[in-house]
Amino acid sequence: xxxxxxxxxxxxxxxxxxxxxxxxxxxxxxxxxxxxxxxxxxxxxxxxxxxxxxxxxxxxxxxxxxxxxxxxxxxxxxxxxxxxxxxxxxxxxxxxxxxxxxxxxxxxxxxxxxxxxxxxxxxxxxxxxxxxxxxxxxxxxxxxxxxxxxxxxxxxxxxxxxxxxxxxxxxxxxxxxxxxxxxxxxxxxxxxxxxxxxxxxxxxxxxxxxxxxxxxxxxxxxxxxxxxxxxxxxxxxxxxxx
Length: 242
Fold this sequence. Notes:
Elements: H1 3-17, H2 30-53, E1 57-59, E2 68-69, E3 72-73, H3 74-97, H4 107-124, H5 129-148, H6 154-177, E4 188-190, E5 199-200, E6 203-204, H7 205-241
Antiparallel strand pairs: 1-4, 2-3, 5-6
Helix pairs in contact: 1-3, 2-3, 2-7, 3-6, 3-7, 4-5, 5-7
């Protein structure tokens, strides 16, 4: 079965079709998106490689094409492009409809609460690789983002992340639980000695934080590239006017 590949393809199908929609105009932002996806993918593929080597998780070859790169199935590498592609589309849709940033008053308390919670969980579980590394990395990056970038676009990101949980439960649910009515075998298995052993609908709680960190990384690169392009175009526009 090509379960993992099908999941990736279905994930990008909707956002790809609506990329040409006239209001959000997602296709016009691909020149910033694809470099951001590549930068983020490099980080998380390296992470994924080592976690696979250490036995934190693994992949069921019955549900992949059997093509491995960097000790990872091809589908796992595609995952780091497909999921962020779809979620940044959600991010852009949120930006279009939430121009007032309704979450902005909650950014500071939410960030401090999340960062503190991540640090506490990481410190309390030093022997669990998936838990300690993921929660600690998420806390550090979130705090850096808040204090270095002054929480810029975090309100929009938080709202996007909440909406992304809907497809997250579907995608990760199939990856971790399989399709019980067809084949109960999981696509991805986890070593519970390296995580908290707490699951929501079969999904390890660490996956939620891992997804949070991955998406925030992609959005940060994406916004950086957009801002950089804006700064470069401003002097050119000024010279043209003069």
